[in-house]
From TrEMBL:
Enzyme class: oxidoreductase
Lineage, uppermost ranks: Bacteria, Bacillati, Actinomycetota, Actinomycetes, Micromonosporales
Cross-referenced Pfam families: TauD
Iron is among the record's keywords: yes
UniProt protein name: Taurine dioxygenase
Keywords: Dioxygenase, Iron, Metal-binding, Oxidoreductase
Any one annotated GO CC term: cytoplasm
Record-listed E.C. numbers: 1.14.11.17
Record-stated family: Belongs to the TfdA dioxygenase family.
Amino acid sequence: MTATTVELRLDPLGPRFGADVLGLDLATASDEEIVAVRAALVERKVLFFRNQALDVDGQVRLGNRLGELTASHPVIGPLSEQHQEIYAIDSADNGFADVWHTDVTFVRRPPMGSILRAVTLPPSGGDTSWADSQLAYESLHPGVQRLVDGLTAVHDGNREFGYYLAQRRNGRGNEWDGEIVTRLDPVEHPVVRVHPETGRKGIFVNPGFTSHVVGVSDAESRAILDLLYAHLTKPEHVVRHRWQPGDVAMWDNRSTSHYANRDYGDTRRVMHRITLRGDVPDGPAAI
């Protein structure tokens, strides 16, 4: 996207991470405002928009203005035949996200970003938190940075979605990167990802999908991952959003992880997510 002179009204949630975008209607935003949103997304990593009137079609239109949309998910079916891009995260259908994760890192090209819209909210609870993986990396001890800079980790979607693919989709998922997903082969990504637009380094492992670090013992792998997870989710690296009707959140999937609280009992929570096509992650050794 090209540069813009539009300045968004931002209410920062932290010195360098997260912001509420004030007074912007995503359904009627100008092209220059969308360019400014895209730039703010890279800089602030997660943005929140209150009092939006988007429906399913409006959410898809917004996504197409920000980038190229993927299918709803590599494995889980779409909202409907007419809305192949929308992934309905519905607590009534075991749609929970109560583990720290970065979206869909178990494929070769994980999404660049995600846009999440509140559809049905519980009376209370169901907040979502995001962690800044770049700030977390930068606050590591330099010796730990040097250790993890050269490491690679395996990401495996079978633990979360293998049964779903085999049993509920009869071994046939959605089209992702031009191919129908029929199995979830583990993939390798650098433990530290270099952001393709800013060059900043960030921790790129997550408890949801990372199985182990390559080339070290099981004990070493567990210790390295546990250290990184504990550091990534320190309170000073995290912002938390309390959802309200009409809320839309978008985040840079290349520089964040997130977690949705499962604290609302048997009341229902429904969110609609779309994802923007990404690229193959590069680590420091590839730059």
